[in-house]
């Protein structure tokens, strides 16, 4: 009976994802005139990067490819160009002025950390002499631009839903989000989650999943992700006042460990020095991105999807590879300066464009 139920469940999952792939069409990303800022191409721009790694004090060593002597530099010289419009040029002084006295919080995993540090550097490059203070405590970090009273915060939570230590072990609670108390009172929230949902073996930081008081040793990870995101969606509906808080979802950041994704099966991101330049990226939309899109459609409050997946899929050249503190191959995170700066340019366009 269990086998039959599991087979039926997986069949329904397949149908759900197949239909979702068919309907996948982000309705966000539109500027005046109907331009979708997430559809475009990468173009060479000699004025890039937007800052220098040696002058930004906020880059952690896992993203600092320049410090670890990455020899090629072309990956720094690409600008995202939407097909039907131009992105507004990022202006850190304008950002600080517009968000004076406000609190902006990134909520998520190390990809949120990647984007948070990028935005910190982008703003700092405009006001290098501005007084700042950086406070780091377990699970939360805050960069304060003192002259402007603006706080850039990072709340580390890889699943958004709660992960608790209990007598039987570590429990990932798919229907609990008490963490959310720390997110209240923000003027802007930028959420992200997916990277850790796929971990197995020793790198899996939970022993059980729980839903409705029932424990599971494991579960199809896309189903678990869907359940967890729905819990987050309910939190948004219950706790967000759109007149006081803008909400973004960062979107799914792709990995480049398998060259078959860009039709070069023998490769990984190692030694890649140019973006993918074809008309259509060979790998399909990740199922996790489809799940995000499906959940966002159910939320009654406005949540803006930073639909970074496709434009980031093109950037097989932009990972730290071996040029980082850990020395191991990293095709998940991104060099700084680098691709996350574009994510923040898109955030800037959504706010000011």
UniProtKB/TrEMBL annotation:
Quote one Gene Ontology molecular function term: O-acetyltransferase activity
Listed A to Z, the keywords are: Membrane, Signal, Signal-anchor, Transmembrane, Transmembrane helix
User: Which InterPro entries is this protein grouped with?
Assistant: TBL, TBL_C, TBL_N
Give the record's family classification: Belongs to the PC-esterase family. TBL subfamily.
Q: Native species of this protein?
A: Fraxinus pennsylvanica
Trichome birefringence-like C-terminal domain segment(s): 87-349
Highest taxon above the source species? Eukaryota
Q: Where is the Trichome birefringence-like N-terminal domain?
A: 34-86
Principal place where this protein is found?
A: membrane
What is the protein named?
Trichome birefringence-like N-terminal domain-containing protein
- Extract one GO cellular component term from the record: Golgi apparatus
Its annotated compartments are: Membrane
| Signal peptide (residue range) | 1-22
Question: Does this UniProt record's set of keywords contain Transmembrane?
Answer: yes
Membrane topology per the record? Single-pass membrane protein
Keyword check for Transmembrane, yes or no: yes
